[in-house]
């Protein structure tokens, strides 16, 4: 029996966030599935670690190239890093919506729902992986709101995409399954964990190291992921894993 090819759409707040499940996406693209990665904000004020590190130094010791880098240049660099990282996992369909970040709110930018709904109608995904719309206690408040607001926008867009709408040429589409990255949930709340082979783990390390704009390097990337995906994997007594939470229980 021939396996049906899946279409997967992911919606993340910032250019780095989709890496939480990049290994799983690589497994899917390697199996012939279609993966579209959507990043809602440009991340221009998020994780600007190199710049912040320079500001801590005495003025005479600061690197002018870092201090004088414009926000537009930083945004462009983050987009390039993100696309290079995605390519490691066979993802070539990357959509950058470039909304401002920190904070990003639906009240400020309600048009994001229409854009995401139109993307859902275009891609017609079987599976949506989006930010959790629930507040978590892991991040500072301003950073957290970007994630939860993008999660709310994705769910509203999914609902909107399922109905006909005047002035919209594309036909409605209902997404079969919606998952949230397990990264922001307590491990006891995970519904399942996707096991990563050592090869996919190494690609996660390479992808993490691409984000030099955030102060990442290969050594930091490896140590960070040994904790993150290593701990996730240990829940299932395996080496590495990426966890997920279902929006709704699956019925058979």
Any chance you could write out the topology, listing elements then pairs?
Layout: E1 7-12, H1 22-30, E2 34-41, H2 49-55, H3 64-67, H4 71-88, E3 93-99, H5 111-123, E4 127-130, H6 141-161, E5 177-181, E6 192-196, H7 198-210, H8 218-234, E7 240-246
Record keyword descriptors for this entry.
seven-stranded mixed β-sheet; about 40% helix; single chain; alpha/beta; about 250 residues
Describe the structure.
- The mean pLDDT is 88.
- Helices cover 40% and strands 17% of the residues.
- It is globular and about 60 Å long.
- The chain has helices spanning 22-30, 49-55, 64-67, 71-88, 111-123, 141-161, 198-210, 218-234; strands at residues 7-12, 34-41, 93-99, 127-130, 177-181, 192-196, 240-246.
- The protein contains eight helices and seven strands, in the order E-H-E-H-H-H-E-H-E-H-E-E-H-H-E.
- It has a seven-stranded mixed sheet, with helices on both faces.
- The two termini are 20 Å apart.
- It has 252 residues and is α/β, with parallel strands linked by helices.
Derived from helix and strand composition plus strand pairing, the structural class reads alpha/beta
Rg measurement, Å:
18 Å
- Major beta-sheet overview: 7 strands, mixed
Number of strands: 7
Bulk shape: globular
Strand content: 15-25%
Order of helices and strands: EHEHHHEHEHEEHHE
